[in-house]
Amino acid sequence: MASSSGPRWRLACDGCDAAAWVGAGERGFDAWCEACQRAQSLAAAPHPATRCAHCGARLPAAPRFVELWGMLQHLDAVLAAWAGVAAPLATLLPERPVFLTDLTPPAAEPDDPAALRAPLAALARGDWRAVLAAPVTATGSRSASMRVHAARAIAHERAGDPDAAIAAWGTVLATGEDERARLARGALLARAGLLDEAGDDLRRAGHSFAARWSRAALLVVAAVKGRTDVPDAGAIARARAEADEPSAYWSDPTVGRLLFSSLVSRALATDDREPRHASDAERSLLRAAERQLEHDTFWDRALVLVGWVRVGAPDEAARVAQPLAASEAGALAAEPALAGAALADVARALGEAAPAIAAGEPERARAALAGALARPDLRRFRIPCGRCGHGTIGVDEVLDGVL
């Protein structure tokens, strides 16, 4: 039995009996080289500079080959955007809600009557129709009344009826003050474009992350909406103060991310002609907004790249795309699995794509990578087995928290 609480992965071939474990074991760390496909025992988990004792390739502490398909997709999507087709990269971008809310089902209490327990239970299991079909009867306490109407408000929103949800949250607030109800109704009003009414609610929505972010988002949206000039710098500064420390996590909202995407949306709303050509004023605004991004992650650069493509500024798109593509191609080429014979053709494809990227030829780079993207083994997060030559190796089992 392993002595570590860290995860262990069992790798296995689907065509022969080749198998290995990766992770902390009873007497150290079980490692597996993705290049030469040999197992080896270490005293401790490998660090980034640790090399295979047999072939010298980088030795990972966890299976890396499962990331190859996603990395290829990212690179190809960047190249497609560089060539003027934003859709593949836009599809990969996370959907970041502009206004956050809290739709956690209200909890039942021991003395709740059956008439209240039934809709609360229906809401917890996602049966919105049953919640809304339940009769609204007198429930006794104010808490019970607020919870039954909160349940109806959540069901209405989940069922796609925001107007009814707004009305139901209003009923909750008519019964008693509630920060969650203020947040939920404020978010719905803001999404409907009723910014003043939303502000009245959100100011009384408390200090949760969702409330603070929604107030920050309201400031950004108001600074962009209905204007054609530079957004009010004071409003953006207040939004940053309200939102607090920006998260670098790929799907989290930040003021910079929202500002840039809002300006792109505003530009598209004022001119949706095809093909589109960004005006000098739009270019200036978006370049300034680009400098306000808090982070320089792949996802932030991808957001910017998609925006430049959509507003019709191919030169700006190329400025962002070329270094991003070169970085992604370099990271992919450094993956340990590509140092071995099993994926030598993928390594050669990257070797052909790299000079095309450097020369500013995204279509040629995409053509070089087409074969790698079409591989069924990589699509299934597997790599060719070096032992039998006809099977593929993948993660067969994961033991998490083994003691």
Short key terms for the protein model shown above:
403 residues, 6 strands
Structure overview:
- The protein has 403 residues and is an alpha+beta fold.
- Helices cover 52% and strands 8% of the residues.
- Among the domains are: 8-63 and 385-399, no CATH class; 67-94 and 316-380, no CATH class.
- The protein is built from 17 helices and six strands.
- Strand 3 (28-32) and strand 4 form a beta hairpin.
- Helix 7 (179-191) packs antiparallel against helix 8 (195-202) and helix 14 runs antiparallel to helix 15.
- The longest helix is centred in the C-terminal third of the chain and has 20 residues, at 314-333.
The tally of helices reads 17
Beta content comes to: 5-15%
The helical percent reads 40-55%
Straight-line N-to-C gap: 7 Å
Q: What's the SSE pattern?
A: EEEEHHHHHHHHHHHHHHHHHEE
Strand order within the widest beta sheet: 4-3-2-1-6-5
What is the approximate shape? Answer: globular
* Uncertain regions spanning at least 5 consecutive residues: none
Strand element count: 6
Structural class: alpha+beta
Gyration radius over CA = 27 Å
Averaged pLDDT, please?
A: 94
How many strands, what sense, and barrel or not for the largest sheet? 6 strands, antiparallel
SSE map:
Layout: E1 8-13, E2 19-25, E3 28-32, E4 39-42, H1 68-82, H2 87-92, H3 114-124, H4 128-133, H5 142-158, H6 162-175, H7 179-191, H8 195-202, H9 209-224, H10 233-243, H11 255-270, H12 280-290, H13 298-311, H14 314-333, H15 344-358, H16 362-373, H17 376-379, E5 383-384, E6 392-399
Antiparallel strand pairs: 1-2, 1-6, 2-3, 3-4, 5-6
Helix pairs in contact: 1-14, 1-16, 3-5, 5-6, 6-7, 7-8, 7-9, 8-9, 9-10, 9-11, 11-12, 11-13, 13-14, 14-15, 15-16
